[in-house]
Design brief:
With about 50 residues, the chain is an all-beta fold. It has no helices and 5 strands. The protein has strands at about 1-10, 10-20, 25, 35-40, 45-50. Strands 4-3-2-1-5 form a 5-stranded antiparallel beta sheet, with no helix packed on it.
Length: about 50
């Protein structure tokens, strides 16, 4: 099981990350940075979609 973590409102999200569990997400912060693992404590999402 995993989750997509969205940022912004449900009708206008501006960013998405993938939850890795243990409070970590993987994301590409912007088009000029590489994909990285981030501590979700410092970048909490607004809502989640859980994938089964």
């Amino acid at each position: 099981m995993g989750a997509l973590v969205f940022y912004g409102s449900d009708d206008a999200p501006y960013h998405v990350a993938i939850s890795l569990g243990d409070g970590r997400i993987i994301q590409a912060p912007n088009e000029n940075e590489t994909v990285k693992i981030t501590d979700q404590q410092y970048f909490p999402g607004n809502y989640y979609v859980v994938m089964h």
